[in-house]
Amino acid sequence: MWDYTDKVKDHFYNPRNVGQIEKPDGVGEEGSLACGDSLRLMFKLDKNNRITEAKFQTFGCGSAIASASALTEMIIGKTLEEADKITNQDIVDFLGGLPVEKMHCSVMGREALEAAIANYRGEDVEALRARKGHVVCECFGVTDHEMVRVIKENRLKTVEEVTNYTKAGGGCRRCHPQIENLIAGIIGTEQKQEAVPPPRKKMSNIQKIKLIEETLENEIKPMLRADGGDIELIDIEGERVMVALRGMCSSCPSSQLTLKQYVESKLREFVAEDIIVEEAKP
Amino acid sequence: MTMHTVYADNNATTQVAPEVLEAMLPFFKEQFGNPSSMHYLAKPAEQAITRAREQVACLLNADPSEIVFTSCGTESDNAAIRGGLAALPHRKHIITTRVEHPAVRNVCQYLGKNGYRVTELSVDKMGHLDLDELRETLDDDTALVSVMWANNETGVVFPVKEIAAMVKSRGALLHCDAVQAAGKLPIDLRTVNIDLLSISGHKLHAPKGIGVLYIRRGTYFSPLMIGGHQEKGRRAGTENVPYIVGIGKACELALDHMQEEQTRVKPLRDRLEKELLEKALDASVNGDPANRLPNTTSISFKYIEGEAILLMLSVEGIAASSGSACTSGSLEPSHVLRAMGVPFTRVHGSIRFSLSRYNSDEDITYIVEKMVPIARRLREISPFGRDELYAAK
User: Fold this and answer.
1) How far is residue B243's CA from residue B239's CA, in Å, rounded to a whole number?
2) How far from A10 is each of A7, A13, A109, CA to CA, in Å?
């Protein structure tokens, strides 16, 4: 039994603003029947771009209905610019919290709002999709950009957390390595921003190769091997590092993502900031 | 004023029968002895266990020596599968089905990663196995077949007698998870050639924390629990005397009430099903209606989601369960309904009502009275199915 707050229960049993608006200014949809929850959100603006009316329809569980109901209350009276700043955490806070497994309900709310605003601004579906990046989790149709935003806004650290917030990785689990890469990439850049690294000494090529080998061995290979893959250093030319992916990695459709977002970020962190990782041509 | 409550989630757990509790109490109080002791308190405990063993054997038409008490259905399943495999160490193939309870399915999947080849038999949209598939899959390497008697979500009953004949002809062991069938359907192990069979106490009005593993006489079995000599070395650990007494009494009561399952519980279930299908639009039954446990119905309400339905039912005092993703604790909806090819539009809105002999006609009236407006209310909130619903009006 989920531990829902009184506010969640109130918004589930007595949802506000259910229904549709005739001639809405913006309509956004998120989720699908297949995913197990879906939200259609619409709003109307006054001449100052302030939301005067918001309505929703939800197919989903108690917290999905409550999140949507809460969101309509939160955006009514706000300008479009103010509404655009609402994060999923704001929805969670408004409801006094959600069980971790249900965080994706708040994310669905925020994404439907984003889609509705894009719809008002006349962005077509293709443009929005392009802005959303490419689909990483095929089971639930979650893109890398969506995940990156949620990971950053909620400071997520594990695949399990990403699944709780976005559903990504909750189905066949094939995308888990890619989600790990996304998290690793974000944590890597955040650490870099937080602590200014001491200027690195100029290395000889031998030293550089040695350090790259060490980094591959200690930081990168263990993770790849966990998924049945491996990596080998082929050559270096200045800042360009040529590697070959082995095992499962060699046939993995997300190998480019692995190279750029994981291997490269690790080598930049441990060896030199200007490193460019390339796959050695066979 | 107390809330009107209707408990219709008996495949999840059942209330302890008052007679069962009554029978157990002395063994918490004055008769607290350990049956292995050498003093005056041991004998009553030992006799109580002997009696309970006979009561369980009676329900299954088995010999009391074939009954082993365990801590729960899951332990029985684990012990049966692992203990059975140890009997045929040179064989490395397990056959099970895609609709088993996790207590079997996850054990088999675990063994699949640890040296065994595992075949999961598929089911059709009615929830039935294809016995030809079983025949073709059985080979000389097959050590064990684990098939449930009746499914917990849909109530669909498997043809265990035919399966047993097929499995035995290939020299493999047959384990049957009869947790849902026991007490609801007659089980006769003298005519059905099953080697290992699991039962759980709390599904038939005994308390949680007690199970039974039937081990056919002559079946080589390697115990999961190793320790003392209890249960003839087949399950070590001091006997849980009060609970053993409880499951014994519960089995006796189940046998007494077996007719009632067909003559009273089944008509209640049928009326519930019929009225819900008529009154709540876009509802359908999952699983073969003609070949089911008498107490179970799985109904899908299209365009609405199971957890939301359950929460609204719960406020009205009605307990049921759902195969939706949101109630499973994972994001995956019911593997049983998925295996049957039930479309997503129906899986997420599936509700299982499972009755018992403690349900009444008024209970059914009450469920229908509450469920119909809940379905209507949630469909008003849902963005799907609007046009179809309006068309139906």
Assistant:
1) 9
2) 5, 5, 17
Between B388 and A3, the more confident residue is A3
pLDDT band for position A252 (50/70/90)?
A: low
Query: What does pLDDT average to over chain B?
Result: 94
Q: Where are the beta strands (DSSP E) in B149-204?
A: 173-177, 196-200
Sequence length of chain A is 282
Work out whether the CA dihedral A212, A216, A217, A219 comes out positive or negative.
Answer: positive
Give dist(CA A215, CA A220) in Å, integer.
Answer: 7
Cβ proximity of A168 and A104 under 8 Å? no
Among B301, B348, B389, the strongest candidate for a mutation testing the A interface, having the largest count of A CBs within 10 A, is: B348
Active site residues of A: 35, 105
CB-closest option in B330, B331, B384 to A59: B384
Interface-testing mutation among A1, A61, A105, with chain B (most B C-beta atoms within 10 A): A61
Asked whether the CA dihedral B68, B69, B70, B73 is positive or negative, the reply is positive
ipTM value: 0.87
Of B303, B311, B332, the CB nearest to A59: B303
B304: which chain A residues are within 8 Å (Cβ-Cβ)? 59
Q: Give the dihedral sign, CA B22/B23/B25/B29.
A: positive
The answer to whether A172 and A160 are in contact (CB under 8 A) is: no
pLDDT tens for residues A101-131? 888 899 999 999 999 999 999 887 667 767 7
Active site residue B58: no
Residue B299 structure tokens: 């109904």
CB within 8 Å: A65 and B381: yes
Instruction: Check B326 against A140: CB less than 8 A apart.
Output: no
Q: Which residues of B touch A62 (CB under 8 A)?
A: 307-308, 311
Among residues B368, B373, B345, B362, which one has the least CA distance to residue B297?
Answer: B368
Cβ of A36 within 8 Å of Cβ of B330? The answer is no
- 8 A C-beta contact, residue A57 and residue A18: yes
Residues of A in contact with B311 (CB under 8 A): 12, 62
Chain B residue with CA closest to A31: the answer is B383
Distances (CA, A) of B4 to A13, B7, B80, B366: 19, 10, 41, 9
Torsion of CA B246, B248, B249, B251, to 10 degrees: 120
* Contact (CB, 8 A) for A56 and A40: yes
